[in-house]
Every structure is written in structure tokens, then in C-alpha cells.
């Protein structure tokens, strides 16, 4: 009897121990952290995130030591070709067949919104670094994604407000004729009018457009002091180039680029862009910490990083820290931990993750240098002012996100 | 101020002039396509890539070999023309006896290869090519500020277009060409080297695209995708003018530039689609195109 009792007791004990061991291991599923990088690797948005963003992600993983609590970190990537279908299907496949833990990158807003729906249905996790639309953490917010670098709200807030305050109180809007452009135009109109300015005219141009001469001529004819560019990427580049050819700035009008990336300014050159005001989430030369990281990136990639590429490194590192601290890759556990931690690194200052998934941090108003002021190829911006984190982004009191109690 | 349909006269005139300048680009590109299709029956989907290569040859020539803009106007089309001849000799000739569709697919594939290779090395943001010094600044014309460079583009494109038309329609060489495509066997019997003529024609057609590329380099960012954006519009222009009609391509190119320019004033949202609307109308009413002969 005693023998049987002992055997029974010990086997029960054994079973319990075994079960506990399994539970501890199951915290990190498959014993691996799997990160999938989804971005436009070959199209219009390639240079602002693309392969450079993947390299930033790899840097973050290497700097973290390549593993979390003994679980190796695996990175894979795919090209979304700026198509919402391709993006959503890729992520669905990653979830089904590779058990992906975190989806990084996420560029075109349309792709991002489609992907976050897939993530929500399957309880996955995504960190959006490159998309612009502020709706990603407003009406399209989910408990399964967060938005890191910037969005349209601070872009309008920062640039438009600064320009109006400097006396640029009449605006002509040049707007890309699709959802992103309309949203940005709406945000800018609100900010300009709130600050006592006026929108005197505008054109909605097709997306994409190569030849802006006709629209620039209309903007010249409007007599507005400021020509606001509510477009992005190649459209912004083309519009600014054309304005330079038609002597817009010499004739006394000023351009306000509402979404301008470092690679855009680099491509256009300082002759065409000097004096342009813009809002950015980060600039590689803004201080020692930023510069040190940027120079390491430069050695690997041969170009200076955009704010998006820096943000990918920053967000990946915070994600891995949260996994390490909680010992788990469960989306809600990780997200809650990330929300409790203040975010302060070479990229984000005074950052915190809000319940709507928005990572708010200090933003910067910058001015593009003149060719005489610039000392080398990538010396492109002068930072004018810092826009404090809590003022830059849409306040939670105006939020329509289902995760926010209003 | 005089108004035309609610738009000040000055703005209206400015838009017409800009439309004409864009039209000159369309004319130059569609002319090359029309020459190649009219004489060789090849639907050259690599035309946009050749335009892009012309711009890239200009940019890289300046960056690495110190070739200036004026020399590039000659050298870039020459280089791309030679590349075109190589493609014709090595690839296109082998499928000449097959359906047009094969040529279309082959040239489309080539375009993707050229684009993809350059994207790999240069990205897609594009690089800026400086306006040549002699053409910087502009004229105050009374109704608008006309940059000198745009005036030059209009002039250069028109001269090249009409020279091409003259050579093909009015000279002995042009007569050989037209006869060679009509009845190659007979021309060969007369001792004319028809295969060589075909190679030269393809080379000339793509050289025209490269010339447009050189003209475009200081205007638009030089990027690997610049050609594919333009190609579809140019094909629409060729269809409207009548596939293969030389004069049709030139006149239609200029006219479409004007129509697009006016759309940008009155209904900018439709600026990218108006040419296709015209194309649909023309296909419904005159399927052979405005200047084409009914088959």
C-alpha cells in the first residue's frame, strides 16, 4: 500500500513539475521570437523604409544579443508592393505557417489598416513605423498594434502652426487626391484657421502626378503667401522641383511641405529645398545620442537613416525589452508592459505609449539649410523648435478609438 | 481682367503654353513608338525604359565621366540607340515571324529587367540633374514666368520631330524604309540590305526616346520608374493618332498636351484620365485612329 501511495504521489509530483516546466517555456511560443518585416521594398516608398529599415531591425536584434531569455530571435521580410491585399495575405500566412510574434515596418497606410485587421482577428502583434494616417490609432485602433514614429496630426500641427505664426496667413493647398491627402488637408485647414489664417484656394491633383507646372502656375496666380503641399514622396519632390524652376520662392511665396522625409530632401538637393519648413519625428544630427546611432547605421547602409528607419530600431528594441522583462511573447502582456515603461532613447524623447496604441514623443520643427550653411552631403536640417509630446498628438479627449473611455 | 470660362486670360494662356511643352514630350516619345510600330510592327514596351536609360546615361555620364548636358544630348541617344540595335539583333529578330504579342512580352520583360536593376542600385527617390547654366532663369512673358529651359525643350522637341517626319516621308532613305517594311523580299532583290535597315530603325526609334530622356533629366527627378509612368499615356497617344502614323503621333502628342493642360485648370481631378477618355472616344468613332488608314 505504502509503496503504491509513494509511487502515486511521486508521479503526481512529477506530472506537476513537468506541467510547470512546460508552462514556463510556453511563455515564449515555439522557443523563438519571430519578427516579420513587411514594407515596400521596391516602389515609391522604398527609400524611406524599405531595405534600410530591415537593416535597422537587424541592428536592433544584434545589439540585443540575438536572443531573449535564451530564445533566439528570427527575422524574415516581405515586399508588400504597396498593395493592401498582398500585405494582408502575407501576414495571414506568417501567422498560419510561421507563428510570427511581431510584424514590423508597415508603410503605406492602406496596407497597414488591412494588416492590423488581420492581426486583431488572430490576436497577433504589429508595430507600425512608417504609415502617416492618424486614423491608425483613432477609428482604426486595435489592441493588437501600436504606432511609433509620427502621424498626420503633428505634421499639420507643427508645420502649419509655425508657418501661420511667422506671418504666413494665406494658404493655397496642393493636395494629393486620395484619403491620406484629404485627411492632411483637413488637419491643415483646421490648424490654419484656428490660428487666424485663411485658405484662399487649392487644387486636388491626381496621385501620382509627374508634371506639377500647371498647378504651380495656379498657385502663383492665387496670390497666397504659402503653398501647402498635402502630398508625399515623389509627388512632393516633383512639386518642389517645379516650384523651384518657376521661381516661386524668388517671387516671394513660400512652400510648406507637410510630409517630407530626409531622403526626399537629399534627392532634391538644397538648391531646390532651402528654407522649407517641415515637421519630423527625429533627425540624425539632432544630438550626440542620435548622431552616434546614425553613424553606426551609415557604416552598414551607406545612407543616413530617415526617422522611420531610426524608429524601427527604437520600437524593436522596446519590444524585445518588454519580452525579456515579462518572459512572454503574448501580445497583451507585452503591450501592457510597454505602456507602463517611459520611452526614452536615441530616437524618442519624453515618449509614452497611450492606451489607443499611439506612442507620443517630442516632435521637431525643422528648416532645410541653404547650400552655404550645409557642410556635407547629409547636413540638411536645422532644428528650430521642439514640439512637446503632449501637445504634438491628437489628445485622447478627441479620440474615437474603441480602447479609450471617453 | 479678361476671363475665359471663369479663368483669367493670363492663367489660361500660361496653361496653354505649359500644355504645349508637355505635348512636345508626348510627341517625341510617341513618334519613336510610331516609327518602330509603323516600320517594324513591334509593340515596343521597352520604350519607357529607353527614355529612362537616356536620362540615367545623362546623369551618370555627368557624375562619373564629366560629360556635360550638351554632349549628353548627342551621346546618350547614341548609347541607347546602340543598346537598342543590340537588342534588335540578338533578341527581337528571333521572334520577328511570331505574333506581335511575343514582341510585346519580350520588350515588357526587358523594361522590367532594366528598371529592377537600376532600382537595386539607385533606389526610387530619384536624383536631381542640374539645369545647364545657359538655360537657367526665365522670361517674364507678360502672362507668366516661362523658365528658359522649358522654352528650349519645346523648341528642341519640335525640331527633332519634324526632322524625323521629313526624313521618313520626304527623303530617299525614308522611301527605302517604307518600301522595306511593305515588301522586304522585293527590296532585298533590289540589293537593299533590309535586315540592316530594320536594325537601324529600331536603334533610331529608341534613340528618340533617349533624347526625350535627356531633355527630361533637368525637369523631373531621374529615377528608374520615370519611364513606366509615362509609357501608358504615350501608348494612348499613339492609339489616338493611329498606330504607325508618323505625323499622327506628332500632332496628337501636341494636342493631348493641350487638352491635358486645360483639364488641369478646369477639372484637375481628371487630368490623369482625360487622355484615356479621348482614346475611348476615338476607338469608338474612328477605330484606326485620327490619322490611321482603315485596314
Q: Would you identify the CATH H-level superfamily of the largest domain in chain A?
A: Response regulator
The fraction of residues in strands of chain B falls at under 5%
Biggest interface reads: A-B, 38 and 42 residues
Shape, principal axes of CA atoms of chain B: globular
Under CATH, the topology of chain B can be stated as: ABC transporter involved in vitamin B12 uptake, BtuC
Strand content of chain A: 15-25%
At the first level of CATH, the class of the largest domain in chain A is Alpha Beta
Give a written overview of the molecule.
The complex is a heterodimer of chains A (406) and B (295). Chain A is α/β, with parallel strands linked by helices. Chain A has two domains: 32-150 and 286-357, 3-Layer(aba) Sandwich (Rossmann fold); 153-280 and 364-390, Rossmann fold. In chain A, 44% of the residues lie in helices and 18% in strands. Chain A has helices at residues 2-26, 50-63, 84-98, 109-121, 152-165, 179-194, 213-222, 233-245, 262-268, 270-273, 288-301, 307-326, 331-340, 389-392, and strands spanning 33-39, 67-68, 71-79, 102-105, 126-128, 145-147, 170-176, 198-205, 226-230, 254-257, 277-280, 352-353, 359-360, 363-368, 381-387. In chain A, the strands form five sheets. Chain A has a four-stranded mixed beta sheet with strand order 2-3-1-4. In chain A, helix 2 (50-63) runs parallel beside helix 12 (307-326), helix 5 (152-165) runs parallel beside helix 6 (179-194) and helix 8 (233-245) packs parallel to helix 9. Chain A starts with a helix and ends in a 14-residue tail after the last helix. The model of chain A is unreliable at 18-26 (pLDDT under 50). Chain B is mainly α and 295 residues long. Chain B has one domain (19-285): ABC transporter involved in vitamin B12 uptake, BtuC. Helices cover 71% and strands 3% of the residues of chain B. Chain B has eleven helices and four strands, in the order E-E-H-H-H-H-E-E-H-H-H-H-H-H-H. Chain B has a two-stranded antiparallel ribbon. In chain B, strands 3-4 form a two-stranded antiparallel sheet. In chain B, a hairpin with a 4-residue loop joins strand 3 (138-140) and strand 4 (145-147). In chain B, helix 1 (9-40) packs across helix 9 (226-241) and helix 3 packs antiparallel against helix 8. Chain B is globular and about 65 Å long. The interface between A and B is large, with 38 and 42 residues. Chain B: One of its GO terms (biological process) is amino acid transport. Chain B: Belongs to the binding-protein-dependent transport system permease family. LivHM subfamily. Chain B: Its main location: membrane. Chain B: One of its GO terms (molecular function) is transmembrane transporter activity. Chain B: It comes from Billgrantia desiderata.
